[in-house]
Amino acid sequence: MSRTPAGQVDERALRALVPQVLAGLVRRGEDFDAAEDALQEALLEALRVWPEHPPRDPRAWLATVATRRLVDARRSEAAPAPPRGGDICGAATGRRGRG
Fold it and tell me: Domain range spanning residue 13?
């Protein structure tokens, strides 16, 4: 990955990695839209992190971060919904549990 002066990431080189990483995620069976969203988040993270800590293998770094974002999204979707109508103790309704 080439770098521009002052520790900035070469965005042209970063963009060149996008089709490769996206294709790898989809080949592994990921949904295209979900893979695209996860890769977008990985790219934002790269722009934040790489100027100070450039990776040895940028493509692998992007693929790893995108995969982790996909896992996080699945966990969020699988998590139980919070209780409706206030908190568990009834604070929103003004009632308190008997104790």
Answer: 3-78
